[in-house]
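Our example copied in:
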Amino acid sequence: MSNPFILAGCGKMGGAMLDGWIESGYADAGVHVIEPFAGAVDRFASASQVTVHAKAEDIPGDVDPSVVILAVKPQTMDEAIGPLRRFVGPNTVFLSIAAGKTIGYFESKLGAEAAIVRAMPNTPAAVGRGITVHAPNANVTAEQSEMCGALLSAVGEVVGVEDEGLMDAVTAVSGSGPAYVFLLIEAMAAAGEKAGLPADLSMRLARATVAGAGELARLSDEAASQLRINVTSPGGTTAAALEVLMADDGVQPVFDRAIAAATQRSKDLAG
């Protein structure tokens, strides 16, 4: 990247992304960080690539950013985005990671000529194991879309889609998905305790099992269904449990309802 870029918001997600950009060299052209809370950017004080501003108005007028990353909370976006409108231009793309804020919302705030990419990351991005789906508006060039994908890849896997309508289901599956996995850990640990395990041991077993199985799924070329078959001996203990989990009233219909509810809520919040 030959031009600097702007990061509005340096909380957990913004900070994780900035860490990745510095490590990967994407920040070498310079990053102007807008963050009113000094404590959030203390760890970047020694990074020569980073310039911190308390508000957007403090960024020099001659800055021509290649990307403006919007990483503020959705409820503060109205206030944050106004001063950034001056950066709208053919050389700049706006990349939002704010949940529930549609491309239409940003076009209404920045103007119909703005190049906008809407992205949905998830919380494992904090440890470099996230997955982010992003969708562009009609003004985004192929080069800008590729650049946004590169920036997002600093915190995990990236998938680009053309249809923004998919983002509600994306939010339901991957955006909210980590909470479902944490609930699975809780449920496994609670069931183990009821089966006679000490609480601390049961929780340790559940956490390590879910984490290990997830890493195995990430590294394996086999489908999840095949990985399940691989650890299921006919007539064994795993098969007995799966008879319950895969019954007509087992896990699948529960997840169908859960994903449908989250998808609808995402649509409702987008207004």
Residues 94 and 116 are 5 Å apart (CA to CA).
